[in-house]
Amino acid sequence: MNRKMTLTAATAAVALSAAVGSAVAGADQNASVAGTKTISVRDDYFGPKSVTVSKGTKLRFVWSGRRPHNVVGPGANIGARVRGSASVKARSGTYVCTIHRAMKLSVRVR
To answer: How is residue 18 annotated by DSSP?
Structure first.
């Protein structure tokens, strides 16, 4: 390739890369792409306490505390456990541990 063609190709590659990066950066920072969102189930709290996810996302609850907790909410009724994980399709609403009612997770599906 001659120098002019090389420069043109390099400029096009940079422009394309910038356009893709800009599109990704412009996406809603709080919404996760449809896939799986991991929620920690710890002693007396969910981490994070609220999430916004895309339609079709699964919530993966991962236990890591010392006391048993369950998860009850829209489309979820996961029995008490101390370790392990369980997944459900994300639905908008509030998920709670009925053993420790102060444990709440707010989910918003877009």
So the answer is: H
Q: What is the 3-state secondary structure (H, E, C) of 19-70?
A: HHHHHHHCCCCCEECCCEEEEEEECCEEECCEEEECCCCEEEEEEEEEEEEE
pLDDT, tens digit, for every residue of 70-96? 999 999 999 999 999 999 999 999 999
Q: Which helix (H) or strand (E) holds 98?
A: none
98 pLDDT higher than 70:
yes
Q: What percent of the chain has pLDDT over 70?
A: 70
Strands 50-53 and 31-32: parallel
DSSP 74: T
- Between CA 78 and CA 75 the distance in angstroms is 10
